[in-house]
Design brief:
MS_channel, transmembrane, Non-ribosomal Peptide Synthetase Peptidyl Carrier Protein, Chain A, two-stranded antiparallel sheet, mainly alpha
Length: about 140
């Protein structure tokens, strides 16, 4: 049972996912502060409301005779927040990593020495497999 769990945790994509969640949470906190503290009040002022959550409220009657409010401004605020988080992650993480990969691949194709070009994922995995299978580690891949 623990061996299967260890194999699951040690997969590269699980570690990548954990890193992505942590970084995403950090970006979300920053974007939440930006939207809540600056964008919502500024857009709310345009619509004569305290903030965007208080703008575009539609009141409808309920079957019980009361009233319900539909908060369209809150939906717009959430959409703005999502777009800002996605843009921050893309421009701060995805774009730079893609550029680094493109540069490494261009150097590899140009015939740069192995020391000048960082290894790609397949090369790293092959090295790890070979190290695990070597007698010096005391482990074999046929466990």
């Amino acid at each position: 049972m623990f061996k299967g769990f260890k194999e699951f945790i040690m997969r590269g994509n699980v570690i990548d996912l954990a890193v992505a969640v942590v970084i995403g949470a950090a970006f979300t906190a920053i974007i939440n502060a930006l939207v809540t503290g600056i964008i919502n009040p500024a857009l709310g002022a345009l619509f004569n409301a305290e903030d965007l959550n208080g703008a575009w409220i539609v009141t409808i009657p309920t079957l019980a005779g009361g009233k319900a409010e539909i908060l369209f401004g809150a939906l717009v605020a959430a959409a703005i927040q999502f777009i800002l988080v996605a843009a921050a992650v893309y421009f701060a993480l995805v774009l730079p990593v893609n550029k680094l990969k493109e540069r490494a691949e261009a150097r590899r194709k140009a015939g740069a020495s192995e020391e000048d070009v960082p290894p790609d994922e397949l090369q790293l995995l092959t090295e790890i497999r070979d190290l695990l299978a070597s007698p010096a580690t005391g482990r074999h891949t046929t466990e």
